[in-house]
């Protein structure tokens, strides 16, 4: 737990520094500070997209639960299943991304590796939720 708290504190520090940073062209980023900043921006964009699709999924699953509640003998539970899945996914993402940073633990590259992992897994989770919504709409 202390390891996770230390990493989170380090990432928050990197995010705070990134907010104070001058405009950086991430297509031309070269220094580790620039690369860390760009990784943070990439993860923030991926997280924003995930939050939007999660809201859409919740709306769709609330409707599915309402439809199931109106069907004799059917049990609702889609919303709770999504919440449980998301909590489990967050725990997986956080642990997996700590592992991604281990090869350079304590170095200046660690935040970039962790953030790149978080962005990648977040984009994959966004796609999973899009597929869930699409399957319900068939």
From TrEMBL:
Write down the superkingdom of origin: Bacteria
The record's Gene3D superfamilies line, in alphabetical order, gives: 1.20.1270.180
Domain Lysozyme inhibitor LprI-like N-terminal intervals: 26-129
Q: Which InterPro entries match?
A: LprI-like_N (IPR009739)
Q: Which PANTHER family match?
A: PERIPLASMIC PROTEIN, PERIPLASMIC PROTEIN-RELATED
Task: Please give the name of this protein.
Answer: Lysozyme inhibitor LprI-like N-terminal domain-containing protein
What's the source species for this entry?
Answer: Xaviernesmea rhizosphaerae
């Amino acid at each position: 737990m202390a390891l996770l708290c230390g990493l989170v504190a380090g990432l928050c520090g990197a995010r705070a520094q990134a907010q104070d940073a001058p405009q950086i062209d991430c297509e031309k980023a070269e220094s580790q500070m620039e690369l860390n900043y760009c990784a943070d921006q990439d993860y923030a964009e991926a997280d924003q997209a995930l939050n939007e699709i999660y809201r859409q999924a919740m709306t769709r699953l609330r409707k599915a639960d309402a439809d199931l509640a109106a069907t004799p003998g059917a049990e609702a539970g889609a919303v709770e299943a999504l919440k449980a899945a998301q909590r489990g996914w967050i725990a997986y993402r956080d642990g997996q991304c700590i592992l991604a940073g281990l090869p350079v633990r304590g170095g200046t590259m660690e935040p970039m590796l962790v953030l790149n992992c978080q962005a990648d897994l977040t984009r994959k989770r966004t796609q999973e939720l899009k597929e869930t919504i699409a399957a319900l709409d068939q």
